[in-house]
Amino acid sequence: MVRKCAFPGCPNREKLTSKRKGALTLPQNERLTFHRFPSNDRERLNLWLLAVQRDVNLPINSVKHMKLCSEHFSPDDFKSVQQKRLLKSTAVPNLFIQTNKESKDPSQLSQDPQSAGPMLTGLLPQVTDQSENTVTEEILSAVNLAGVPQSTPVKPNRINSSTQVPDSPFPSTLLLVLSSPEKSIQCSKPSTSGTYYALPAIKSYQSNEQTYAESENINEDLSLDVSMLSLDPTTEKDLSFVPLSSTSTSTPTTEEEEANCRFKDKKWIVNESSLMELFTRCHHCGASVTETKKTTCGSLLRVAWECSNGHQGKWNSCDEIRGMPANNLLVAACTLFTGATYVDIDDWASLLNLQIPKKTTFYAIQSSYLIPVVDVMYKEQQEKLLEGLRTQNILQKGVHLSGDGRNDSPGFSAKYCTYSIMDGSTNQVVHYELVQVTEAASSVGMEPIGFKRGLNSLLEMGIDIDVMTTDRSPSIRKIMRVDYPQIHHEFDIWHVVKGFFKKLLSVSKKKENVDLQPWIKSICNHLWYACASCNGDPEVLTEKWKSLLHHICGEHRWEENGRQQTCAHDDLTHDQQRRKRWLRKESTAFRTLSTLVLHPNLLKDMRQMALFKHTGKLMLKQMV
Q1: Quick one: CA torsion of 594, 600, 601, 607, rounded to 10 degrees?
Q2: Where is this region: Disordered (predicted)?
Q3: What is the pLDDT of residues 302-333, one digit of tens each?
């Protein structure tokens, strides 16, 4: 069995069944040894994981089988015990493998040191000594700063002289200096202070050619795209970090302006063939381009070119934010914020052959960035709405709310129910509750649970509710009658009209009630009109509703309870009166309609419909 060194790019292997050939003949301090990760020391384990570019939240079971070879430790990290070389309990692996400068890939070095100089102004300290200037020049010539994303600090080999920089196989590294504010305190545990090198986040690009930074010895475990991964927010921060002196004048306002400019920047759909015509000539000398390499990452296109005179360059179709293409973030954000789904956008882009992020990348961006942003914005908006409701309580204007539930699937097989509560004055959803079917006896019982839970939440937030509008569900009616008698319960007219329409449609299908079919729409409109024009008086609402039975027979003036009653519409002409298909009072259709209009339960419920409350706006929001 052979076990690899866990350091990325390290070719060393450990043979567990047999010793290496000639290994025992080497001196003790030159033998290659392998060392397990310190799983019993969490602080030192995190430093080891950072050194090998792994997540610090990696499970202990995965760490137990990982080892590092002795080439990643300095001689001072070892001690001799009984002629054996053992690793000290405070040792932390260095970053680099000792390699020759000749082994570096020239394409990994910066092609434009002049453009990299200003970017280092805020990252490297200003020096006046000639020897320190030499260090700055060496770093400028060896560091490619184009698009350096968010990085993870790891500890390198120790530097014996201030004028020497260790050879690094990594093309993009930034020097960070960490120092402890209290040097007099001695600790038995290793300090996170010292000299560190920041590496860019590992990116996995979709390409039909080999990437510049691609290596054959890269560990297979690092093949995934970790540009979407982040450290646990509960991870302890390194308070000993002392930032270098910087001449950068960037402020949060400037960063916000740059982000807004990136978002407002116009974007065009460009064919690949037309775009590649721009890379036929060198931008420096005008010579013909001999080689171009294209690398894609979702919506990002990266072109690397080289001309016949040796000039090289790179071009990106969009900016990168911490190693992630900005357009990938914008595509995912626009899809989510417009209420669309990835399937719809992907089908549209596939027909157009437009390059967008893959499904896994889309959902990774959504869960890591977009949903937290939506959650923060929702809480801010909810607090503003609740503050407005509290102001209404202070001004004694009364808080009128309406609520309705929506299941994830129709019928009796729903698994989730979302109960939303809307403010009647602003038509804004102030609260919602999500209920799972396991919390109720059946799918029908989810809505009452969500209603009661949401109402209790608003009451606990200090909202005094005067009117609550819901449908005529028997379970919700009982909850309002028993648990909240101080709140006036109104019935949603939209649900009442919808139920009455279904009853009329059902009875009109019978042969003897066919004459009702032309009147169904007018009858439902009359119910809306009666509720809207009663001015909150239940008696007026009942009278207007009963007047339907006189109007539908062509009788527009009648006497009731010793008073003369008339229809609210204008007088009809003789021709209009003659052409209308009125019902006869002795007909079966009229008797059926009278039974529905004068039903005791409907007349009783009308006393809770006089305020003309409905959830039409809420239904529209739920259908989005």
Answers
A1: 100
A2: 98-117
A3: 999 999 988 999 999 998 888 899 999 999 99
